[in-house]
Write a structure and sequence with these properties.
Layout (H helix, E strand, L loop, with lengths): L1 H28 L4 H10 L7 H11 L6 H12 L14 H36 L4 H15 L2 H15 L18 H39 L2 H8 L4 H23 L1 H6 L2 H7 L4 H10 L3 H29 L7
Length: 328
């Protein structure tokens, strides 16, 4: 197993290198650049140098005056030492800004992920057990709604009902107006209250696909010969479902759950923007719109690494959930 893991990690490093090269090339080709914006602003000042002079000077300062390949290897040589430069837009080191916003996104994503598992998997199993019943149709409709409708629609509906009509939650923001006047426990509750609607939005839009996936695989397992044999032996239905069927359903479900690892740290760009939560999704969106190459390069490379890690974890978990799966 360790030999397999080592081999997969080595492959992932090679893949990450080429993915980073593609990302860097795309970033360098974007039409929007923070350097160009700053050059225009400084050139418009009274008695200032021309736009081209400012642009050449800023490109030299930010090491943008060399080719894409040369620039990429310069970035890689510093990245392997943990040096990702300073954000052009936020004027702080990239890693410092990233660390200050990542945890808000992680807490939202982790809670939504846990709720997704708690809600979707039991609903998928229930839907499979009661195939073609009213319960099955109701769960299927709910799942299809979650799959079909976009996140900003649910976010808008939740804000309309619970913020505008009922007044239970604020429309946006991470904290309320009187946050600084609250006790430590009061501040925690204030932040938690502002996270309810974003978490609800992410949970609603994510359970649909997992419900359908669990239902499909559970139906396939329930029609297997070993399930009919277990029932013929007189085992209770709960034991047949929970001990025999569910364990065999876990393998494809693990694939889905392993692939969701990046979403715990990626942030929900649309949801965070709608609720103005200063997480990594909203922060990276702002960096991208102004052409902040150092910050967005780090963010995209980090996401690529998490995706590769999620796939590796899913492969390893196969052997955990099913003893028949072994690596030779």
């Amino acid at each position: 197993m360790w030999k397999y893991i080592t081999k997969r990690i080595a492959q992932s490093v090679v893949i990450l290198f080429f993915v980073s090269m593609i990302i860097y090339a795309i970033m360098r080709c974007l039409p929007t650049s923070y350097i160009e914006t700053i050059a225009r602003e400084r050139a418009s000042l009274p008695g200032a140098k021309s736009y081209q002079e400012w642009l050449d000077q800023l490109n030299a300062v930010y090491k943008m005056d060399c080719g894409i390949i040369e620039g990429f290897f310069g970035w890689v040589s510093k990245a392997v030492r943990g040096e990702f430069g300073d954000s052009w837009y936020y004027n702080v080191p990239v890693t410092q800004k990233f660390a200050s916003v990542i945890w808000d996104s992680f807490y939202i994503g982790a809670v939504a992920f846990i709720l997704q598992i708690i809600i979707a998997i039991p609903l998928g199993i229930l839907s499979a057990r009661k195939q073609y019943s009213k319960t099955d149709y109701a769960i299927t409709v709910i799942a299809l709604i979650g799959i079909s409708l976009p996140g900003f629609f649910f976010a808008t509906i939740l804000k309309l009902i619970f913020s505008i009509k009922l007044g239970w939650f604020d429309l946006y923001g991470k904290v309320g107006k009187y946050y600084d006047q609250l006790s430590t426990w009061g501040q925690f509750l204030d932040v938690a209250k502002h996270m309810v609607l974003p978490i609800a939005t992410l949970t609603i839009i994510s359970i649909g696909s997992l419900v359908r996936y669990t239902r499909t695989n559970m139906l396939e397992v329930l029609n297997s010969d070993f399930i009919r044999t277990a029932r013929a032996k007189g085992l209770s239905e709960s034991k047949v479902i929970n001990k025999h069927a569910f364990r065999n359903t876990l393998i494809p479900v693990v694939t889905i759950l392993g692939g969701t690892l990046p979403s715990l740290f990626a942030g929900a760009m649309i949801t965070e923007t709608l609720f103005q939560i200063p997480g990594i999704g909203y922060t990276s969106y702002q960096a991208m719109t102004v052409g902040d190459i150092p910050f967005y390069m780090f963010y995209m490379t980090f996401m690529a690494a998490l995706t590769l890690m999620g796939n590796l974890i899913a492969d390893v978990l196969y052997a955990v959930v099913d003893p028949r799966v072994r690596v030779s």
